[in-house]
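Re: the 63-residue chain
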Amino acid sequence: MQSNLDQDFEKGLRHVKDAYYKKIDTLETEIRYLSQECGRKDVALQELRVRFTQVEAELQRSF
């Protein structure tokens, strides 16, 4: 009887561990995706700053 309980416990523990590791993998994937998106947004923001500086310089030359 104890052996069956041990086996059931081990199966349940493996199930929980598998679900836990799957969730960790999912979160790591989401973190990588968000990091890439932030990188793209940082590049876009930098490009906007450069363009703003160019437009600002053009306006100053105009006046």
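Residues 1-63 form one domain.
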